[in-house]
Write a structure and sequence with these properties.
The protein is of the alpha/beta class. The chain has 2 domains: 210 residues, P-loop containing nucleotide triphosphate hydrolases (Rossmann fold); 190 residues, Rossmann fold. Helix 3 crosses helix 4, helix 12 packs across helix 16 and helix 14 packs across helix 15. One of its GO terms (cellular component) is small-subunit processome. GO terms for molecular function: ATP binding; ATP hydrolysis activity; RNA binding; RNA helicase activity. Its EC number is 3.6.4.13. Keywords: ATP-binding, Helicase, Hydrolase, Nucleotide-binding, Nucleus, Ribosome biogenesis, RNA-binding, rRNA processing.
Length: 435
C-alpha cells in the first residue's frame, strides 16, 4: 500500500476546483484527512484507486472531490455512479454530493429500494450528473427499464464502490455484475473502491492485471489501520446473560442511573428481534426507534432523523446501521446479539467513541457466544472487562415481570399484524433477498 506525504496543507493544494474548495470551506471542512490527501491527486491524474480507512475518516470526500472537480470542467450528462450496500448510506452520500455541488446546479439521483420505481425511472431519464444507488434496485432498472432510462449509464466516467468489502461478497454478486455490465468497459472509466475493511477480495483487486492504456492502479490504506482496530477512547465490556431474560437486562441497563440519558444503539442480528425490542421498550416508555430492512423506506428515514435529533434516545438496529452512517453523538453501543464476524463488532463499535470522544460497548454473551467473543478479542487485540453496573437481583426485582408482560403484548401485536409476511412473499417472488 502506498504512503502519503504530509505537505498537502489544504484542498487547493490538492488541485480541487476553486468553487469546490469554497463549498467545503462553507461546510467548515478546510483540512484534508490522510485518505483525502493520498487519493484526491491520484484520482485527478486519472488513476483507478483502492482506498482503505476507518469509518469517519472522510472517504466520501476522497472520491467526491475529484469527481466533482472533473465534472465541473464539462458538466453534462451522466458522469459518475456510486454503488453502496444500504439505502441509508446511499441517502447520506447523495446528500453530500448535493450539498457540495449546490452552487453548480448539480443533479443527483438516488436509486434505492423502498421508493417509487416509476419516479426513479423518470429521474434517470433526465440524465442526472451523479447516481447513488444500491445494486439491487439499479439492477432492477437495468433489466426492466428501457434504453431511455438506463442508456446514459454507458457514457459514465466514474464507478465508485463504497463499502467495497461488503459489495464484493456473495450477497451482491449477481446484482453488481448486472450493474457493471451496463457501464462503459473497464478501460473507458475510472474505478474507485473505498472500504473500512480491506478484505481478501479487495486485496485480490490490487494484484489484478493492469488495464492496457490506463495508468497503474493506486492503492492506499491509512497506515497501521489494523493495529488499532477500535478507538483508544472506547471501553469494551461484556455481560453474561441467559437468553430468556436478555430484554430485561437491556431495559435495566438503559434505564439505570448511569445510562438513562445516554444515546444508545442496540445491534441485533435479525429484523424480528429489532421489532420485538422496539415495541417492548416503547411500551415501557423508552424513547426508541428502529432501523431494519423490513421497515418501509420512509419509516427508516424517519427513525434516523428522530435518533439524530434525540427525539429517540435508543436506536434498535440490524447491521444496516453499522456502516458509515454519520451519527455523531452515540455514547453507548450494545451488542444484544453477537455477530459471527469479528469485523462486524468493529463496525458496530465504530458508531461510538468517534473523533476522540469517550464511548462504551457492551456485549451480551450467551452460552453459544463465548467463541465469538474470543475471536473479537483476538481481532481487536484487547480483552473485554466484565460489566458490573447491573446485577441479577436488581433485574429480577425491578424489571423482569414488567418487561416480560410488555414483550408478550409485542409478540401478540406482531402476530396479529402478520409481521414479516409481506417480506416473505416478496422474497419468494424475487427468488432472493431484497435490498
Amino acid at each position: 500500500m502506498a504512503s502519503v506525504s504530509e505537505n498537502s496543507g489544504n484542498f487547493a493544494d490538492l488541485k480541487v476546483s476553486k468553487w469546490l474548495v469554497e463549498a467545503l470551506h462553507s461546510m467548515k471542512i478546510t483540512q484534508p484527512t490522510a485518505i483525502q490527501k493520498a487519493c484526491i491527486p491520484k484520482i485527478l491524474e486519472g488513476r483507478d484507486c483502492i482506498g482503505g480507512a476507518k469509518t469517519g475518516s472522510g472517504k466520501t470526500i476522497a472520491f467526491a472531490a475529484p469527481m466533482l472537480t472533473k465534472w465541473s470542467e464539462d458538466p453534462s450528462g451522466m458522469f459518475g455512479i456510486v454503488l453502496t450496500p444500504t439505502r441509508e448510506l446511499a441517502m447520506q452520500i447523495a446528500e453530500q454530493f448535493t450539498a457540495l455541488g449546490s452552487s453548480m446546479n448539480i443533479r443527483v439521483a438516488r436509486v434505492v429500494g423502498g421508493e417509487s420505481i416509476v419516479d426513479q425511472a423518470l429521474e434517470l431519464q433526465k440524465k442526472p450528473h451523479f447516481i447513488v444507488a444500491t445494486p439491487g434496485r439499479l439492477a432492477h432498472h437495468i433489466m426492466n427499464s428501457g434504453d431511455d432510462t438506463i442508456g446514459g449509464l454507458r457514457r459514465l466516467k466514474y464507478l465508485v464502490l463504497d463499502e467495497a468489502d461488503i459489495l464484493l461478497t456473495d450477497t451482491f454478486t449477481d446484482d453488481l455484475a448486472t450493474c457493471v455490465g451496463a457501464l462503459p468497459p473497464k478501460s473507458s472509466r475510472q474505478n474507485l473502491l473505498f472500504t473500512a475493511t480491506v478484505t481478501d477480495q479487495v486485496k485480490q483487486l490490487q494484484h489484478a492485471a493492469a488495464t492496457p492504456g490506463k495508468p497503474e492502479l493506486f492503492s492506499y490504506e491509512v497506515e497501521k489501520m489494523d493495529d488499532v482496530a477500535i478507538p483508544r477512547t472506547l471501553k469494551t465490556t461484556y455481560l453474561l446473560v441467559p437468553e430468556q431474560v436478555k430484554e430485561a437486562y437491556l431495559y435495566q441497563i438503559l434505564t439505570s442511573s448511569a445510562y438513562n440519558e445516554a444515546s444508545a444503539i442496540v445491534f441485533v442480528n435479525r429484523t424480528v428481534t429489532a421489532e420485538i425490542l422496539r415495541r417492548t421498550l416503547k411500551d415501557l416508555d423508552v424513547r426508541v426507534a428502529s432501523l431494519h430492512s423490513q421497515m418501509p423506506q420512509q419509516e427508516r428515514t424517519n427513525s434516523l432523523h428522530r435518533f439524530r435529533a434525540n427525539a429517540a434516545r435508543v436506536l434498535i438496529a440490524t447491521d444496516v446501521a453499522s456502516r458509515g452512517l454519520d451519527i455523531p453523538t452515540v455514547q453507548l453501543v450494545v451488542n444484544y446479539d453477537i455477530s459471527a464476524n469479528p469485523d462486524t463488532f468493529i463496525h458496530r463499535a465504530g458508531r461510538t467513541a468517534r473523533a476522540g470522544r469517550a464511548g462504551e460497548s457492551i456485549c451480551f454473551v450467551g452460552q453459544r457466544d463465548v467463541s465469538r467473543i474470543e475471536a473479537i478479542e483476538e481481532r481487536i487485540n484487547k480483552k473485554m472487562t466484565l460489566f458490573t453496573d447491573v446485577h441479577d437481583t436488581a433485574v429480577i426485582r425491578k424489571a423482569l415481570n414488567k418487561v416480560t408482560a410488555a414483550k408478550r403484548q409485542s409478540l401478540m401485536a406482531m402476530e396479529k399484524e402478520s409481521f414479516g409476511e409481506r417480506r416473505k412473499i416478496n422474497d419468494r417472488k424475487n427468488g432472493k433477498r431484497t435490498v
